[in-house]
Specification:
Elements (H helix, E strand, L loop, with lengths): L1 H10 L1 H16 L12 H6 L31 H14 L3 H30 L4 H17 L4 H5 L4 H22 L5 H20 L6 H12 L7 H18 L6 H6 L14 H20 L19 H19 L5 H14 L18 H15 L6 H24 L3 H11 L4 H14 L2 H14 L4 H18 L2 H17 L4 H13 L3 H12 L3 H17 L3 H14 L3 H14 L3 H14 L5 H9 L4 H12 L6 H8 L5
Helix pairs in contact: 2-5, 2-6, 4-5, 5-6, 5-8, 6-16, 6-17, 8-9, 9-11, 10-15, 13-14, 14-15, 15-16, 18-19, 19-20, 19-21, 20-21, 21-22, 21-23, 22-23, 23-24, 24-25, 25-26, 26-27, 27-28, 28-29, 29-30
Length: about 650
Amino acid sequence: MRDWFLRELRRAPAAYAALLVLGVSFLAYANTLDAGFHFDDEHHILANPYLRAAKYAEQYWHRPDYFSALPGHDMYRPLVLWTFALNYHWGGYEPLLWRLTAIALHGICAVGVLLTFLVVAGRWEQRPVRARLGGALVAALFFAVHPVFTETVDYASARSSLLAGTCLIWAFLAHQAAARMRRGGALRVGCWTASLLLFGLALLAKSIAIVFPALLLWSAILRRRGYGAVLPSLALALLYLYVRHLTLGTAVADFGARDATMASHDVGSGGTRPIAWNLFTQARVITAYLCLFGWPFGLCVDRQVRVSETLLEPGVIGGGLILLGLLVTAWRVRKQRPLVSLGIVWFLIALAPTSSIIPLNQVMNEHRLYLPGLGIALAVAAWVRPWLTRRVAWYGVVATTGLLAVLTWQRNRDWHDSVRLWDSAVRVSPESDRAWNALGVALRRRGDHEGARAALTRAFLLAPESWSPSFNLGTLHLHHGRDTGNDEELAEAQAWLETSLANRPDSERSRWYLAETLWAQGRVEQASKAFRDLAGLNPRLFEMTRYPLAKIALDRGRFDRAERLYREALREGRDPVAAHLGLAEVALLKKERATAVRAAKEAMEARPHSPRPHLFLARLYRGTPLAVHHLFEAERRGYRPTAEERASILDRKHS
């Protein structure tokens, strides 16, 4: 058996190495298969109606507003939306399929690193595959298990970075494979075509993929030939910028909007950082990124980074010297160790879109390291490869891989629970108002009202001019006041929401919840007027306001008006489940039980994966076998009832 295995290994060493990398990638993230959704996943995925209907899929090409359920979050990433829609179509919001998709993409990307090392090393060295396989395996395993990539793999909204990195490494691999072929032919043309196609897919996943022509150019510089082969990818990049301009109104960055925000005090806008300050700060940030690769402890989903306002800061000078040292090293070793040079320059080029002249919302983010990390993996493996001829070096590789895998496994645990994730963030970065704000939101969802209030108040004290803490404090008091009937809580909710509206006067969400607060206070006429004012702002809000206006009509006994409002929402079609269930509620109040059941079943047909119709029918049939069936179906689709709710639905006394 041992002899057979060794013979097979010698026959196809690259194939077995690829299987090993895939297996290690899966094992490193196997404890995340039941991890849920976090933070931006709420509006990108869970509340996004455009993922739940096939009719919207063909519009992803030209509707960047479909990327989020919230207005003002437009992004041109159609490939990401298609993968989200497929995940929802095949498994709803059950985490398993979403997690398997992310782990599979990461494993495929790691295999791409393995093969890229083999092919690129083969272009510079006339050595057999087995002689190059050691370094390739080190690069792939380093990339597969390094904990700095956990945010990209574990965070569903970071799918864009995952897709862009995976498509780009395989596009680079196909380009290098085509360039290595000395003769033309169908296979070479196929590799060129595959490279361009994969580059196009990477662009449709995230705009950072636009660095691909620069990577090819540096590869051509190292080889001193192949410059013309860069032109097709450059043309495709320019075409992408044109399409992006047509859909988003800007090809690169809206500098007019950035300048307009310079007077704003909202540090989250990014506009408050002049370009020079951003460059100074990013010199320190890039150094911090390098440190995370060498010392991957203290990972943080939202790290507060002080903005550097002068070039003369020691940290800025040190960061600049490190960057200069990397560039000098890449240039000096370009002939003796071209793979090291390629990896260093890959890292710097891939970081350029997020760590240079454009001030982004957050100064530092770990998921931005996924594409640059490909270069680090290549450079590290190429640097240590001369020592891999010694057996003791492989002991070190195995030990390092095991240690990184353990750290990844431990970091994955934080992604199981939003409270644990953000609690780790505030411990690492206690000055981050965004982390405290997110912790408060997570505690509120868990039902810890006092803990949420304390965390959100801390966030507000750290950044009183920021919109999010005051808004979330307002909604916290609104929900608690509405549940308990406490007028003081509702008055406090109104005060906080007015503060958030003062910080961001154009906030539709602040205006919406202010209208809900007025409604909860019994000021129905004022609330109705506020909702009607919101309805005129855009078509999405027109549909959304139909529901509270219909409920106000129901409270007043105006069933016909409520039915008309729900049918208006149904014609808009963005959330047919809510509209059908609203019609079912009207029918129940009119004592038309059969009509209510029919409306609920129509909601079920409109969105087969939604738990809401089954939950409605479970409550309607409470205490009967049908209630058991529909409660089970609702749970199968992701609904998690409380113990009291379950007991109420299943109690036969209510049948």
